[in-house]
What we know:
2 copies of one chain form a homodimer.
Chain A: E1 21-22, H1 23-42, E2 46-49, E3 53-55, H2 56-59, E4 62-63, E5 68-69, E6 75-78, E7 82-86, H3 91-100, E8 109-118, E9 130-139, H4 144-160, E10 168-174, H5 175-185, H6 197-208, H7 210-222, E11 225-227, E12 233-235, H8 241-251, H9 258-269, H10 273-291, E13 299-301, E14 315-326, E15 332-344, H11 349-352, E16 358-363, H12 365-374, E17 386-388, H13 396-408, E18 413-415, H14 423-432, E19 437-440, H15 443-448, E20 450-455, H16 456-465, H17 468-473, E21 477-481, H18 485-496
Parallel strand pairs in A: 2-8, 10-13, 17-18, 17-19
Antiparallel strand pairs in A: 3-7, 4-5, 6-7, 8-9, 9-16, 10-14, 11-12, 14-15, 15-16, 19-20, 20-21
Amino acid sequence: MAKQKKAPRPKAITPKGFRDYFGADVVERNAMLATIAETYRLHGFEPLETSAVETVEALGKFLPDVDRPNEGVFAWEDDDAGWVALRYDLTAPLARVAAQYRNDLPSPYRRYAMGPVWRNEKPGPGRFRQFYQCDADTVGAPSVAADAEICGMLASTLEAVGIPRGDYIVRINNRKVLNGVMEVAGVLNPDDPTQFEAERGIVLRAIDKLDRLGPDGVRALLGAGREDASGDFTEGAGLSADQAETVMAFMSARGDNAGQTVANLRALVGPSATGSTGVDELDQIGTLLAAQGVGEDRAVLDPSVVRGLGYYTGPVFEAELTFEIMDEKGRPRQFGSVSGGGRYDDLVKRFTGQQVPATGISIGVDRLLAALRAKGRLEQAAPGPVIVTVMDRDRMADYQRMAAELRAAGMRAEVYLGNPKNFGNQLKYADKRQSPVAVIQGADEAAAGKVQIKDLVLGAQIAASASLEEWKSQPAQQEVDLADLVPAVRAILARTGG
Amino acid sequence: MAKQKKAPRPKAITPKGFRDYFGADVVERNAMLATIAETYRLHGFEPLETSAVETVEALGKFLPDVDRPNEGVFAWEDDDAGWVALRYDLTAPLARVAAQYRNDLPSPYRRYAMGPVWRNEKPGPGRFRQFYQCDADTVGAPSVAADAEICGMLASTLEAVGIPRGDYIVRINNRKVLNGVMEVAGVLNPDDPTQFEAERGIVLRAIDKLDRLGPDGVRALLGAGREDASGDFTEGAGLSADQAETVMAFMSARGDNAGQTVANLRALVGPSATGSTGVDELDQIGTLLAAQGVGEDRAVLDPSVVRGLGYYTGPVFEAELTFEIMDEKGRPRQFGSVSGGGRYDDLVKRFTGQQVPATGISIGVDRLLAALRAKGRLEQAAPGPVIVTVMDRDRMADYQRMAAELRAAGMRAEVYLGNPKNFGNQLKYADKRQSPVAVIQGADEAAAGKVQIKDLVLGAQIAASASLEEWKSQPAQQEVDLADLVPAVRAILARTGG
């Protein structure tokens, strides 16, 4: 007789590249998102919550050549909706919404969005395939007043979540200034923007590598090319030494104040109309920020900000935390960027053919939380609840009554609901719950209308260091009248920060 | 020459069955979720946030016969993780987590989870394929103290979100009592639980139809069977009239108070051991709720609650809103259920082979919001921001300064960022933003250090009803010193509820 094959038990694991968040991590992130939302709302931004699922077509991730979605997204074919995918950012859904509801939304439309996005990338250590984004964008506002507002809001937001003034800086640059510099350097012809496209691509990539290669490496890439340590050769943009110096000068054009920076840039872009517009815009942004009360200790014009210059069409922004933390090897290093953004002008063009200006930022909430944690600036994780222990299984109603009284007074409280036989297990449970207080009432105390209250924080300190005499005197445990349960527990919580 | 075919523009639409949420809807839901989370935390529950994506195996949705996932989930095959799917509820991920981290989690483990879930079902009007769930469960607590705690917490939660006492009721029943009744009715043999399985299935389905078919219809299904209006015949369980009356008596066993209900049920289950245990459990739950201060005006033992009896293994709960609303046809009807739950004892057995008791509830957040909206009990949707209009494009810095001042004083404020040429458009925009106040400063006012403040709420009232004289006197608009901007706007907001 054939033995029936038993199905193996399923494995209790998260899929590769995904993770779970427990307790304080969830509470802290939700608190931060709520604070950010409040700041955004104060600036007139409204929330938008789209679904996780979009059509692959709307996401712009359909590859018509192979009739399949781009591999970077999680996609599947649906009977009712065709090829659909999980959103990979919050900008693509905004573009879809701005096009779909263009007749109903206010214009300009200021919106914020917060939530998970998904990337179909190889998972690796610390690289997750689902993570949070937190964006704010203004759609339909062509003037740099919108950019200045976003930069000021970014500074306010960082302060609202707990980064004090001086520990962050918002840096602002402008793609148009770079284009002006390109004109001066002879790699952009305003009358024929298609000319020198390859050279400009090389220039952009070279600029982007300043951090890694240093000025000499970038200079080589701007010129004839660069051979790396392994002997690999990267072709350069073919600029002369003078032309290359113009580009290099752009990146180091920051002066002691906004006025100087603007003057330096104005000299650099010379006769270029695009460049002049770009410098004017930076100048206006500086003026508008000052009017909003955002000084240069919070937001500066800084031409060395090059990240994303290729993607954006005007002003670009980046927020950096300027304090040092220790890296894995114990070396101090700057914490770095927690937010970036800028102006991009073809948000909905793909859908409607119309050009609609937009500008926005994205805040890396998880990095920001990590920074606050690294600096010990997150509010001490709230302690666990008060644990009402169970000495007598038949008096569960009494214990529930005590827990209800504590809750009614605003204190987190729970009755131990495991098997109460072994009291040591109850205290181990309280320890695992990081409970500050245990409430104990046996038959004797109940008869006398009393209750024992154990200060678990003090108890742990004593257990670690007390002499036998101290230990025996049990200073961490006190007996009070049952009627005094609430004030007695409150007094301990006030002392231990609960 | 062949003309190059232009790719058609993508359609800006949500996939079928998905939707977007804007502004107040997002704010209201987030506020409700935050309130629920606070109440859950007060009871010692900790948040858990799992990913949207789980292995199909862990979800228990893999169909080995066809080597494909169940069609009810959105699933795809991943290079790194195999078949994965979007979670369809929050219980399956809890089961995976309870098994995966069983050595690290406190036991009992009280957790709450809030977030979207996805169902691969045919979309239809009002039927969405992504919606919110909001669950609280206690894992590893076998005693009914855990059930009583959950029921009390459910009542507190409903009050916390704005359902006053008297407008809701938590009803509690117990699957074990029904099993006892089945024994008495002769369709459950405790010595051979496999006997009469078909009959019990019919009885359960019949009970479930009480609302729709009425007592006579259910009686017919318990007996020989029932022919519906179209002539279709549904076979019955074949119970005798006496047996059927026993089952019917179960559903109407509720007495004037918990004591009477318990007595009625005890008489019904007679000698059945399972039935007696079930009645004892209900009795204890009633006692424990009373101890927590939850009276019968908030939670009652009610054997007519039959929903989900088939799935659960012990106590079951349901929260109903008891007030009437008007349905689509203008007829009054009870709002009905907003939450359900109960005890289920094989949460992690699939993974570990171990039986782990669990009990929990799920709150339908969207239904609860709809109820509050229907009763006008949601806080008046916050008005839009103050709009600082732009009379003079060159003085944008002044307008930004005013907005910044208003924000610094805690008021939502924004500068109009569209094309300022047409002032009417600015007021239309303010209207669309539901703005309570417009701030106006032209060159004359600026020179005099003044600013105009327009009360848009009052302005709209006047526009609707004023005489020409009233209209001309412009009572909705006042000129104040620029230095008094903040107090003057605050006074209007205080009057209009902003």
